[in-house]
Amino acid sequence: MTILGPFQQVKTTATNITYADHKANPFRYFECHGQDFIFFGHHPTSTPVSLVNMPIVSVGRDRLFDALGRTYEDEEFEDLCFKFGIELDDITTEKAIIRKEKHLEEDDPTEDEEIIYKIEVPANRYDLLCLEGLAQALRIFEECEEIPKYTVANISPELLLRMHVKPETSLIRPFVVCAVLRGVALDEARYNSFIDLQDRLHQNICRRRTLVAIGTHDLDTIKGPFTYEALQPPDISFVPLKQAKTFRADELIEFYKSDLKLKKFLHIIENSPVFPVIYDHKRIVLSLPPIINGAHSAITLKTKNVFIECTATDLTKANIVLNTLVAMFSRYCESKFEVEPVEIVYPDGKSYLSPDLSVYEMEIPLSYINDAIGISLEAHEVTSLLKRMQLHAEHSVSADKKCNIRVSVPPTRSDVLHPCDVVEDVAIAFGYNEIPKRKPASLKPLPLNELSDLLRSEIAMNGFTEVLTWILCSYKENFAMLNRKDDKSEAVIIQNPRSSDFEVVRSSLMPGILKTVGHNKDHPKPIKIFEVGDIAVLDNMKDVGATNRRQLAALYCGANSGFELIHCLVDRIMEVVGTPFVPLGDDTGYYIKRSDEPEFLTGRQASIFYKGKHIGNFGIVHPEVLSNFDIPDPCSYVEFNMESFL
Asked: Which reaction does it catalyse (predicted)?
C-alpha cells in the first residue's frame, strides 16, 4: 500500500485504491475497482459505513450493437454509458478472460475472438443484468424505441394453470410465484442470456438463493395443476438436471457436496427436517429449490413454452425477480410483451394471479424536482426526460394550481420507491455535467469534521503524512496480531465476509497503520504517519447494535523508538485543543497515567485522561506486534478518541 500525503489524490497499483480528501467539502471516500466496490466516508451530516456490491455484466459487443440497431466506437459507447449512469468497465475477449484466470501471458487478440464489453450497472437495477435489458434501456434513452407495455394474458378459468401450495412449506420456504412465457423463440444466444440472467439474479437480489430460487421448465414436458410441497428428504426421488440416475433428496445433498457450484447452496435446506419440492399433476419433480431442477423438464433451444416458478422466503423480492425475468424475455414471445398468468392457491383457500405487472402511480410536484436538482425545467421537459428513463409521465395541475408530474412506474423499475428516485432519473437524463454549479445558501460542517480538519492540518505541519486504510480488516489483525483477546463486547464481526481480509470492522486504527508501515518498510526512515478515521464498536443503545467513533492515530518508525516525539505530539494536540496539563486526578484538563496494554511495551506506555475520562493510549509498540506485521524497526504509537473533545 502506498503512503498517502495530506490532501493529495493517489492511486495504488496493487489494490487500485483511489483516495480523495476535499478540504472545501468534508466528504472523504475510497473505492476499490473490481468485482467488489467498497465506499465509506465522513458526510457533512453523518458518518455512514456501507458495503455495496456493484454487478458487472459481460455482453458480446457485436450482439449488443445488433440489439441497439447501430455500431459505436469504444469511446462513443463509453460516453453513452456514462450519460445513462452506467460504466464501461473493461473491453476484453473470452480467451483473454480465460488466460487471465489461468495466469497465462497475454496475447494479442485475433480477429476471430469475440469482443466482450464488461459493463458496471447499479446494484438495484435488476433490469440491466442482461443484454436484453441493457439494449432496451439504452434504445429508449436514445429515443429510438418506445417504452414497452407489459400485459398479462386474459386466460379463461378452465385453461388457467394453478400452483397449489401445501401448508408444510411454511416450515422452510413459504412463498411461490409463477408465470408462463408462450411461443418463445430461442436461439443459442438468447438461451445463454436467459440462463445468465437467472445466475445474476441469484447472486444479487436473491442473496445466493437464500431469499429467492428460480426454476425454469419446458411446459410441454409437464402437466398442471402443480403442487408446491415440503416433504422429508427420503420421500423425494427424481433425476436431477444433467444427471442420468434417480437420487433421493438426502442422497443428492451428499452427492453435491463435491460440486463446486451447487455445494454453496446446500446449507440453505441441509439441516431442515423437510425439503421444498415442486410436482406436476403426474408427480414428476420439477425442482428441489433452491438446489437443482429436475432433468425431465429442462429447457432446450427447442423449448417453445417456458414455465417459471420462484420459491422464496421474501415475497416482495420473489415478485421483483419474476417480473424482471418475464419482462426481459417476453420480447421473444409470439405475443410480444405478453405473459400468461398462473393462479397461486394457498392452504387457507386464498388465491391470486401471478405475475403482477401493474404499474405503480406516483405524483410529484414539479417544484420538488427542480429544487432538488437545482435547475428550472418546464413540465413537458421533465416528462420527456422521464420517458427516456423508461418512466411514463404526464403533467397535471392540482386544485391549488400547482403543477405536478404523474409518474407511472413499470414492473421493471422496482428501484423507484420514492420521489427522490424520480428526481435522480430526471438528473441523469438531463445530464449531471449540465446541471449548473451553485453554492448552497448556508453550509456548515459538523463540529466533529471541523475538529478533524483542524487536527489534520496541525499534525501535517508537524511533519506527519496522512494515510487512509481499510475500515475492514481480518479478525487476526484486529486481535491476535496486536496481542489482544476478543471479549465479544467490542468488535463488529462481518457475518459473510467475501475474504479473510475483511472479517471485522476495525475497533482500532492500529492494524491499518502497522500494515502500511509493514508494506513500506524499505521507505527512507523515519516514517511519520497519521490517520483520522472511524472505527466501529458494539453498542446496545443503538438500533443497529453498533456505533461509529472518530479516532486519531499517529506512528513514528525509525532507528530509535521516537517515544518522546509521540509524547510531544500528544502535548501539542492538547495545546491546540486548548486543554492544559494538570496533575493526576484533576478533571479540569488532561493528564497521563501508567497503563498496561498488551500492544505496547510494559513500562513504556501511558493512558491519556481528558477531564477525568480515559480517551486513549500511547507508547512503544511491543516487538511481538511489530514482528507480526513484518516491521523490523522500533515504533511508537498513539491513538485516542477525538469525540471526547466536543
From this structure: tRNA(Phe) + L-phenylalanine + ATP = L-phenylalanyl-tRNA(Phe) + AMP + diphosphate + H(+)
- Tell me how many domains the chain contains: 4
Q: Cell digits for 554?
A: 499517529
Residues 220 and 349 in one domain: yes
pLDDT band, residue 169 (cuts 50/70/90): very high
Residues 366 and 231 in one domain: no
Containing 341, the helix (H) or strand (E) segment is: strand 338-345
If 0-12 CB within 10 Å is exposed, 13-18 middle and 19+ buried, where does residue 439 land? exposed
Burial class of residue 107 (count of CB atoms within 10 Å of its CB; 0-12, 13-18, 19+): exposed
Domain check: are 580 and 523 in the same one?
A: yes
CA atoms of 505 and 469, how far apart (whole Å): 12
The residue among 377, 404, 434 that closes a domain is: 434
Q: With CA atoms as reference, report the closest residue to 528 among 614, 633, 624, 451.
A: 633
Alpha-helical segments (H) within 256-376: 315-329, 366-373
Identify the pLDDT of residue 27: 33
510 Cβ partners below 8 Å, 6+ apart?
A: 482, 553, 599, 637, 639
pLDDT for the residue numbered 107: 57
Q: Residue 356: is its pLDDT beyond 50?
A: yes
- Asked whether residue 265 falls in the same domain as residue 304, the answer is yes
pLDDT tens figures, 26-42:
333 333 333 333 333 33
- In sequence order, what are the residues at sequence separation of 6 or more whose Cβ sits closer than 8 angstroms to the Cβ of residue 8? 21
Whether the Cβ atoms of residue 625 and residue 599 lie closer than 8 Å to each other: yes
pLDDT tens, position by position, 568-609 = 999 999 999 999 999 998 989 999 999 999 999 999 999 999
Q: What grid cell was written down for 313?
A: 422466503
- CA–CA gap between residue 445 and residue 78 (Å, rounded): 36
Residue 374: phi and psi, rounded to 5, are 90, 35
Strand partners, 287: 278, 293
- Measure Cα distances from 586 to 72, 217, 590 in Å: 73, 76, 8
pLDDT in tens, 472-505: 999 999 999 999 998 888 889 988 887 888 999 9
Query: For the whole model, what pTM was predicted?
Result: 0.69
How do 151-152 and 338-345 pair as beta strands? parallel
Q: How far is CA 97 from CA 93, 94, 100, 109, in A?
A: 6, 5, 5, 11
Helix 315-329 to helix 188-203 angle (10° resolution) is 160
Question: Does residue 50 lie in a domain region?
Answer: no
Q: What is the pLDDT of residue 41?
A: 34
The reply to whether 552 falls in a domain is yes
